[in-house]
Amino acid sequence: MLCAEGKGWWKGRDSKTRPRFEEFVSYGIVVRWRAPEYLQNPQVGTGFGTRVGAGQTSQSPSASIHVNDDARRDSAAIILSRRVGSIADLSAILADALRQIQLSLIESTVSQLSSIERDGFAIVFGVLDERTRLDLIRDVEELLLESTAGIRELAAKVPSVAALARSATVRSLVEPVLGPQAMLVRSILFNKSLDANWQVAWHQDLTIAVASQEEAEGYSSWSVKEGVVHVQPPVQVLEQMLSVRLHLDPADDTNGALWVSPASHREGRLRAGEAASVAERNGKHLCVVQAGDALLFRPLILHASRKAKSLKPRRVIHLEFTGASLPKSLAWGEVAA
Asked: What is the tens place of the pLDDT at every residue in 93-143?
C-alpha cells in the first residue's frame, strides 16, 4: 500500500480520496509502505537489526526509512529527501528502500543466531500481534478451567496453537537455528498466578517426551509426567533443540519471568548440584518481556523462575522444536501434523 499527503498520514480507503501522483510530485514528503507478508514476521519486531530499528530511522541518498513502532510493526514510513519527477523515479527510490529493509532482515536473523549461539537465548519483540494474542487467550481459557497451572500436549488440544507452531511467523524463528526439517515435539501452556504459583530452581531441561519406554543406548532416567513418558537423551539430541516461549502477558520479576544464565548452555550437561554455582559464576539475566514477545532458548541453558507476587497473570505458550532424529526404537511423544 502506498499513500501520502503533505501533512500527516493519508488514511482514506476510498479511491475518490486517494492522492494522485501529481500530489506525490507536489508534496513529495511522506510515503507509507505496508510490509508484504514475507516481511510481516517477528524479525520486524527486533527492529530490523542494527540497520533500521523500530521507531528509528535509516538514511539513504533519496529517502529515510522510519520503521513503525506500534504493536504490529508491519509498516514503515519512507520519507523522501528529494522531489520525485516521475513514477519511474519514485519506483527506483522505493526499490532501494526495500533492499535496505531486506538487508536489515538478514542482519536481524544473523544477530538472532549469534545471540543464541553465544548466549543460549534471544528475545524477539512483537511476535504475536494483538488479535492473535487475544484469540489464543480465548482459545485456552476453557482448558484452564480444568487445569489452572498449565496444559500439556497443548497443540493437540488447541488447533490455533498447532497452526501457530506451523506458521511462517514461528517457523522464521526456528528454521534459522535448526533448519527447515525442524519439527514441533512438545507444547505446554504455563499459567503462573497467585492461585497457581510455583518457583523453579536453577536447572537445565534435560528430558524429552517420547511415545513409549523402549530400550535405546544413551537414553536413561525414565519418568512419566501426567501420563507422558519422558527420558534423558544423549546431550547431542538436546543440542539440536530450541524452545520458543510465546508470551500472552507481560512478564517481569513480579509475576515470575524467566531468569537465564547467559552462555551456560556451553557447559554441557551439568552434574547434580552444580547448577546454582555455575549460574552464580556465569551471571544471571531476567528476561523481561511484553505481551506478544518471544523468548528463544537452548534446553541446556540454566534457567529459573520465582513465585509470582502480583495479581498479573503470566501465561506462556512453550513450544519445543528439534532438528534431531531418534533411534528406531523410539518416537517423539508429540509430533504436530
From this structure: 767 766 666 556 555 666 777 889 999 999 988 889 899 999 999 999 988
Q: Which long-range contacts (CB under 8 A, 24 or more apart) does 203-206 make?
A: 203/275, 203/302, 203/303, 203/304, 204/269, 204/270, 204/275, 204/299, 204/300, 204/301, 204/302, 204/303, 205/238, 205/243, 205/299, 205/300, 205/303, 206/232, 206/238, 206/269, 206/299
Helix (H) or strand (E) holding 224: strand 220-225
CB under 8 Å to 275, separation ≥6 — which residues? 201, 202, 203, 204, 302
pLDDT, residue 219, reads 97
Cell of 96: 532501494
Q: What confidence tens digit (pLDDT) does each residue in 180-217 have?
A: 999 999 999 999 999 889 999 999 999 999 999 999 99
Q: According to the model, what pLDDT value does residue 52 have?
A: 32
CA distance 136 to 320: 18
Say if CB 235 and CB 303 are below 8 A apart: no
Look at the chain and count its residues.
337
First to last CA, the chain: 35
d(CA 19, CA 6): 10
Q: Which 8-state DSSP code applies to residue 36? A: P
Helix axes 159-166, 130-144, angle to 10 degrees: 140
Q: Is the pTM of this model over 0.85?
A: no
CA–CA separation, 317 and 220 (whole Å)? 27
User: What is the rounded distance in angstroms from the CA atom of residue 163 to the CA atom of residue 157?
Assistant: 12
Query: How far apart, in whole angstroms, are the C-alpha atoms of residue 333 and residue 229?
Result: 7
* Backbone phi and psi for residue 274, each to the nearest 5 degrees, phi listed first: -90, -20
Work out the pLDDT band at 226, boundaries 50, 70, 90.
confident
